[in-house]
Amino acid sequence: MRRAFTSGMQTTASTTEKDTSTTPALGPAKWAKLRGLLPHLVHPNETILPAPSVVTSQAVNITDELITGGLSTLMLRLWFQRDEKGHRRVPLLFHRLRIRISDSLHPMERHGSVFRIECEYGSVARWVVYRELRDFLSLHAHYAMSNMILQNVDKMPEFPKTSLPYFKFLNKELREKGDGRRVGTADFARLQREALENYLINLIRAVMFHPSSNRLAGFLEISALSISLAQSGAQYKAGFLKIELSSNSGGGFGRKSTSWQEKKVSRWCSVRESYLVVLEEPGELEVWDVFLFDSGFKIERPKRYYRQGLGNLLHHDKTDEKSKELEQQHKKTVEHQHGHGHANGDAQQRITEPAAQPHLSTAPDSERRSVISSIKTRVSKIFQLDPSGCMSASGSRGASTSRIAGTHSDEDEADADVSDQGDDDLGSVLSIPSRPPTPMLDPSTNANPLLQGQGEEGAGKDGDEKGKEGMKKKAASDVSRHTFYVVNSQMRLKLVAKNERQMSQFVTALEKTAANSHYTRSNRFDSFSPIRMNVAAQWLVDGRDYFWNLSRAMLLAKESIYIHDWWLSPELQMRRPDKERYRLDKLLERKAKEGVKIYVILYQEVSNRTTPTDSNYAKQRLIGLHPNILVQRSPSHFQTGTFYWAHHEKMCVIDQTIAFMGGLDLCFGRWDTPQHVLTDDAADTDRSEIWPGKDYSNPRMSDFFNLNKPEEDMYDRTKVARMPWHDVAMQIVGQPARDLARHFVQRWNYLLRIKNHTRLMPFLLPPPEFRPGELSQMGLTGTCELQICRSAGPWSLGTPGKIEHSIQNAYLKGPFSRECRCSAGFLTATLLSISISTSGCSLSLALRPVHLLNPCGMQRFKCPNTLFTSRINSLSPLRYLLSVLLPSSYSTVVNDVKIENNIGDAIVHRIIRAHKDGTPWKCCIMIPVFPGFTFPIDHSDASAIRIILECQNRTIARGPNSIFSRLRKEGIDPNEYFAVFSLRNWAKMRGDVLTTEQVYIHAKICIVDDRLAIIGSANINERSQKGDRDSELAAVIRDTDMIESTMAGKPFKVGRFAHTLRVRLMREHLGIDVDALDEEDLMTHDPVKPENEQEAWDPDSEQTNREEGGVTHIKKSSQKSGIGAVAMDAKENVNRAAFAGVETTSNKTAEVVRKLGLAHNLVSRNPRNETIEEERKDFNREGQKEIGFASSVVPTLEEKTIEEQRPPKEHIDAEKDHTNNGDRTIGDNHEAENGHAQNGDALPNSAPSELHTDDNVLFGAPANAKLPSVDNEPPARSLNSDVVEEEQAAPGAKATIKDNLGSKSSRKHVWTVPTKKPQVGPQDFEDPISDAFWKNTWVASAVHNTEIYRKVFHAVPDDLISTWKQYKEFVAYHERLNKPTRGSTNGEPVARIPSESGEEVAHEPLPSDTNPTDIASEMSKEEGEETPPLNSSSFAATQNEEPTKPRRPARGSEPFEKWERDEMEKLLGELNGQLVIYPNWFLEGEDIANNFLFNADRLLPLPIYT
Question: What is the distance, to the nearest Å, from the Cα of residue 444 to the centroid of all Cα atoms in its chain?
Fold first, then answer.
């Protein structure tokens, strides 16, 4: 039979081989000569594949071919040769290509066969191509015509005519050979495949050394990119398409500088596993652009409306009858597909199936075919064509809005379809098939070819009915057969294929890809990325550890480095000291010279004067190092209309495998150690500077300048301390690193579309998924469940209709979800570092400070925060919670501006539930003492500081919408559940000058229950959380490796990652030497379970496949162009100016402005109206509003600690505590010190006179306190009828605090504090919410430290300051500190606090009625000369000196005595770490009078700070 088949072919495999061996043509002769050079390279023991599959034996090693030299020459030609279109040759060695036509399918909806061509190139590139017989004919015809004209093929092989399905011809040949056998269907299909396979092999031999091989490469869907990416992801479909941008709102498609003509050219497109890539040419790797799949991906098939109308009039009756007939015929066909008979009738029915199925596309009454369609159908029948094939829809959800298309080409249908004319001989031959027909659709044009053919397993008749209804539905629409649209969140593209079959194949490939992609699904928290299991992750606290690990990873880079930062300093030293080779620019230059591609995105500041990051210097410095370093800056302010918002994310991805992210930029001022030292004066020493040049910084003194001179200092190191920087970041390995790389690629490509660059920069491709088991083989797995979230919107990512705020969703749904609970019925939520944002409402559940920046012309905003919440028990479902909060609730109101951040609301509701259930619950927030801006708070240019403090105070304790007020309304003591802390440190400068400075908290983390953690760059405020403002990144981490611990004294299992992070942070804050303790390497732990057995934590079951609602949708009409956004910003500024003017002019002025249409809501913003008054009221316990703030009624943590006499004796550090030497203990004399006798009567003269000033202003009293009738009485609250016993006792505690502050103290020792030093050990941190730790260690240490800093430095802010006048009196103490001790010879002052006193910073004095005299001297005069004697024996004993006589402290503005300076240092030595209390009463009196903000502050746009 095979001899009969091959004899009918004029060119067969054997004949061809014989011809080429005897009289070789030019092409085969070259190859034969090349093979002659390799006589001994074929190893006889190796298996040689069959000849028809390859041109040359796979046993010939390609290295040996290169050694001979001939192949090297041919490879060089690949670079220079061009085909007839001017395209470079595809760099492919065709003789190394293996092909095999493994199967020929007979789809139900088609006449002809579909051939499955399996291709393999090398050992890694494998792919499958589906082609019809007419595709082979078209390929041959093009080569024949081209060779006829250009003579560009050496010897064109003839097409195997016997591969055409003419059975009468085959039977005739068999009869001539005397063979009585006939060719059956299966035998013919096998012989047909062999003939076409031999033809392809011969064609490869003919064209493999010629540029015309590009046509064959296109036939096999081979390109330079497909070979380059063979080991990283799969290719689903490739070919030429014409691409047009249908919607320009997302930034365009292709480079912005591309001409209109270039955008109309057909380009090579390739569908890969999560994107559609468009190339300049198939022979090059240069990418034209990339279309990414996301949750908004869909395919649109346009209806051809011009083909409707006439068909309704001319074919109404006829179409009705035909529709019914086809419906009956289709029913029989479907029933037959599930049968098993082999009778002649059954066989005949199977033969007619392909012919009947395509006509099901006939439309019902609603959509008739037009005259043109009808005529074309009739013409098609004359030439035995089938123009109405129906493409089946895929079963993937949401992949397209309409997937109706034919499977035949409009141009080439006459080339290869089977004749449907009957033939008796043919019928007898085909009546006995060797196997049942394939019950499937064309796999190349149907995403689920078995869906309609077989139905789902076990579907039975229901599956048949669904298949029938589905086909009728798809046949109902007459859609375009060449054009389709693809849509994602960024753009809408119009794609035009050359014929219908190519279009159908691309649509199918897109559907298959979308169905398998994680990025097209609805992911948890509406994030762009899915949940990843068994991830290796490690937290990194402070810059030293972060930069060291990052530098090590950079040295391992082999292919690429992605860096995205708000600010980057090229001269940053990653390792210190004296490690110049690890400087950032040197590391990047070294890797660039090794061939690593480095891509950097930096935030572009509006002005270097307002945001002094000098991104242009950083860019020029980097790109000047090496051509492999590419830098883009964003945003383009006027183009996008973005002046207020910034790219605030910080990340670095190495080789798309290792990622670093968190709160640390690669810039000056971030490198720090857990000790957070303040000084670095290496002059006159033999050591090197730890913070050289600009890296020694203190933004509270002055911001950065002259960054192009990084080696120059900005301050005098002997007089100005640096501001330490506390931060948290993390290292990730595996799939999440690729999610971050994809995010970077998406942003990089978007910038290329909207910016014109003088230097050509490439489009980047997103990385593929790691193959199953690949990470395990490399040992890159861990125990964490991790998901990447982000804040991204129209201006930052080019998504005009979508805003992603998955970080906010994670904060709301993660810590406060019903699913987040322990087995004991209660849950601990530890949010270490919750940032209370500049937005009055944004309680940031992030570790340490919130870093806000003003990309506009204002200032750089850094608002640090830290929250530690514990014991969230029996949480109500978040969906229920939001249904209560979202419609009408908001976290706070600032100047009648509502801040709609629901995190604060969620905390309040959770505390209320915990209080009702009686379950322990703690929320610990850590924020910076002051925002990191220049100038003291009373300076006229300190607007940013005052606005941020105003918003924070509104969030925490002031106003009816504050957390304190809402809790008091429910009868809850806020101190039992909610507390805010900060960090501060001290040091000795040259000359033993004391100094102090805040430790700036910049980390943004959230730790819940020691089980869940969130680490990122997002502050908890409107800027970071809303999505359409600052761009941010965050990671949600849940460790599946659970370890035993305790919570509230009960056994509790915690996650290793979150637990170790929380313990590490708390140890650092309380002064434990964390460097001396062994820290566990979290990335060395093996997964608890395989990934496929892990169950992801998804509280709201959001992780689904292709469901809508993954991001927030906004109406198109609300989108503004760049000019529109600028106009809106200008109008908002006018509104602010008008609002501020109201305070200084009159309501008539406001009315004029309002009539001009510039300020519609100006009246409501009038600070004199009732709205502003409402903000200065508080709820009493009966739910009624009264004038005053909750902060003035609720005792501070310091007052409660003193009242409760904490810490108890068993928790006091007896060995190190000397703060009450020889003094009476608080426990024994506490009542007396508070001004109360044992029987409750007031003690005479027990309250110090400093409690009020000469003008009867209470010093340190709450703003709404009533003036005492007697001087020695503590102040009473205005809400006296509403306070409880605990609140009534608070003034007495404050009297003790104030008594300790003044030099005329009732204590025996002036240089002591009211509280004892708590004992702290490294193992005391397991249970964070037990009273033993929380009250006796954590809070007691913060109170103790606060009192020491107040006593020694008068550090601000402080709870004893209520008014501006009290502030000036309080900081006047700094003038004394700035003087040398009495009798000193070196002239050095006792202490310097330049950032708080305004030293060396010119600033205007606050307008005041008082003269700028020496306030301290005036106070000294009032105090008089009498001072209680001091017992100094203990101090003298420590100095081995005999006590001489009692010593009195210096008075008023007199210089301190030498012994006082020594007592100060001794007292500072008793500190427990850096933890201090955040003051809630600071300048409360000015706030309640609406005098805290200056008039100029109200001109600034509030959204910048929120």
Answer: 36
